[in-house]
Amino acid sequence: MGVKTLLCAEAIEALKYAENETPYKPPYTGFIPDEIIRDLGVPLVEGKIPAVLVVVGKVGDKEKLKKLIEDIQKRNILGLFIGDIVKEMEEAKLEFGLDKLLVPVGDSITSAAHAANLAVRVPLIYGGIEPGKTDEIIEYITNRVPAIVVALGPVDDITLAAGAGCIKAGVPVITNNPVPEIKGSLESSDIEDIVENALKMKGVEVKVAEIDIPVSVGPMNEGERVRGPDMQVELAGPKSYGCEIVLVNENAKNGVEIIGNDIDGIEEGSRIPFAIVIEISGKGLESDIEGVLERRVHEFLNYIEGVMHLNQRDQVWIRINKDAYNKGLRLRHIGEVLINLFKESFPIIENCNVKLITEPEKVKEAIEMAQSRYKERDARARALSEDDVDTFYGCVMCQSFAPTHVCIITPDRPSLCGSISYFDARAAAKIDPEGPIFEVPKGECLDEKLGIYDGVNKVVQEKSGGAVEEFALHSAMIKPCTSCGCFEAIVFYIPEVDGFGVVHRHFKGETPYGLPFSAIAGQCSGGKQVEGFVGISVEYMRSPRFLKGDGGWNKIVWLPEELKEKVKDAIPKKLRDKIATEKDISNTEELKKYLMDKKHPVIEKLEEHDKIEDKIETEEKPVDISKSKTELTVPTISLPAGFGGLPSNMKIILKNVVIKAEELVITREDLKTKSKKI
């Protein structure tokens, strides 16, 4: 009955969308698209978002409501709210939205179908499980999706039935009502402890940072913006100057130093120079990890209530709002937060000294020193290549969602989620030797062009449980790397032009195939190795080894305009106006014509194929294939094993044939239709 109730709820919700493209108006979201699920992928696998609570019903007490929301926020839990509780939050003037991880889904119990739908799509997106494999999907949700239903207040029969459906689907339910308890599936708790007890049902432990300062500290404050009228003071920023830098110094001491005026000595609304210099010491710390730790300053400062931190290095921009200032927040508190969070996050750090500088001349001295160090780091990073190192790094963080996925990180290939560079990985492996990022001896290079190394292959076989035997780091066509679901972009093969398109996660339109990002992403996510498709980071497109095994930029024929502009500096100048975007073409026929008009490098083969096709069609006598080698050169197309989802042991070789583009267009249109129906 429970599953039937969820199916009926989904049918009702589907009818809402059939009758109205936007049936949900703010603050409600209704359906949660794939793009948001993928955006949440990295923080979920990193544990930054430790769980998802689907909160249904009504609290009935303003103070208890505030305590409930505070308990959710300080643990950085994603909360999906359904029913009367949303109105209660509005009346209590509590802020919500995706940036706060507090998401009102809908006002009726049927909208719970969108939360259930989200849970089901996680194994489809990240686990590579095919739709319809019910038992596998339920097992995945039970073991890998940290979602719990919290049912509050009076519960009617429909809500009870929907809860039973959630339990059947692998999502436990906890309520503040008396119920016949089933350990781990259905439990009761008083509302004061319901969040902590909900996490225990999924075996999730969350450590809450307790720092004695006048405002709250935690991930729930990330995304907070401080507008001009609310600003007490602006530190550095575009109308002033400043910097931030982390330095390894074996003589570092613990403490906070304020050089210049604290904010209570600065006129309200002022914009002043500002520098943060952090010195750290500890056994095993090396200067190579300075930049890695430096990037955490952005995250840690945004944890502080009332503080907005933007940009990095000598472009840093910080604002503190009036409310936080009036509560007593001062620079020394910011320094204490940095010391606490650095030492808590990186136990290898023994001492941490934070200098916060507002004296203009001292800020200038700090900037000069910092810029010199930035240049040294950048020169070292740009000069480093795979040939210069004996060790790569592997990451299996995403195996919590995609069990066979292994990410290999090299100086020329960042993690496909875009969040881990080679130096990041090296620092992480050193700081946490037992963590999900580890050393990979690269071993002998078996193919320099493709990027195949025997050491990498051994690790991939071991870490994937034998599911994957070989990786080519720089090819989408031959043994490409596996893709989890957190990738920033996808490379996909376009056989009609023998070239590649690249589409990024936030592209809203359709590719030349007529398919959106989400449909193409389904081809290669879930830890699958599918030749013709591979997930990548945007930064990899700037690498000198970008798709080297497939021809590199010379084989890129299509990019969304936004992505093209973002990586413009990496595209060879002679190709910049030859790569099409969605504004230039809308299908593969138009793409082919565009490439010919622009004389893209791939047209040489296209023109050769067209000449062959024309000769075959105008030939009065049947073509004698046995003599074709001397009279007519007809292409051979080899589609490698695994291409487009073929079985890994099957390869298709098409000899002495001509593939007509219009026939493939029909196939893609069929795929488009099916995708929309799904």
From TrEMBL:
GO terms for molecular function: acetyltransferase activity; anaerobic carbon-monoxide dehydrogenase activity; CO-methylating acetyl-CoA synthase activity; iron ion binding; iron-sulfur cluster binding; nickel cation binding. The keyword Metal-binding applies. It catalyses: Co(I)-[corrinoid Fe-S protein] + acetyl-CoA + H(+) = methyl-Co(III)-[corrinoid Fe-S protein] + CO + CoA. Belongs to the CdhC family. The lineage of its organism: Archaea, Methanobacteriati, Methanobacteriota, Methanomada group, Methanococci. Transmembrane segments: none annotated. [Ni-Fe-S] cluster binds at residues 395, 398, 484, 486. Its cofactor is [Ni-Fe-S] cluster. It is an enzyme of class 2 (transferase). Its EC number is 2.3.1.169. Residues 374-604 form the CO dehydrogenase/acetyl-CoA synthase complex beta subunit C-terminal domain. This is Acetyl-CoA decarbonylase/synthase complex subunit beta. The gene is cdhC. It comes from the Archaea. Monomer. The ACDS complex is made up of alpha, epsilon, beta, gamma and delta chains with a probable stoichiometry of (alpha(2)epsilon(2))(4)-beta(8)-(gamma(1)delta(1))(8). InterPro entries: ACS_CODH_B_C, CO_DH/Ac-CoA_synth_bsu, CO_DH/Ac-CoA_synth_bsu_3_sf, CO_DH/Ac-CoA_synth_bsu_arc, Prismane-like_a/b-sand, Prismane-like_sf. Pfam families: ACS_CODH_B_C (PF19436), CdhC (PF03598). Part of a complex that catalyzes the reversible cleavage of acetyl-CoA, allowing autotrophic growth from CO(2). The alpha-epsilon complex generates CO from CO(2), while the beta subunit (this protein) combines the CO with CoA and a methyl group to form acetyl-CoA. The methyl group, which is incorporated into acetyl-CoA, is transferred to the beta subunit by a corrinoid iron-sulfur protein (the gamma-delta complex). Keywords: Acyltransferase, Iron, Iron-sulfur, Metal-binding, Nickel, Transferase. It comes from Methanothermococcus okinawensis (strain DSM 14208 / JCM 11175 / IH1). GO terms for biological process: acetyl-CoA metabolic process. Binds 1 [Ni-Fe-S] cluster.
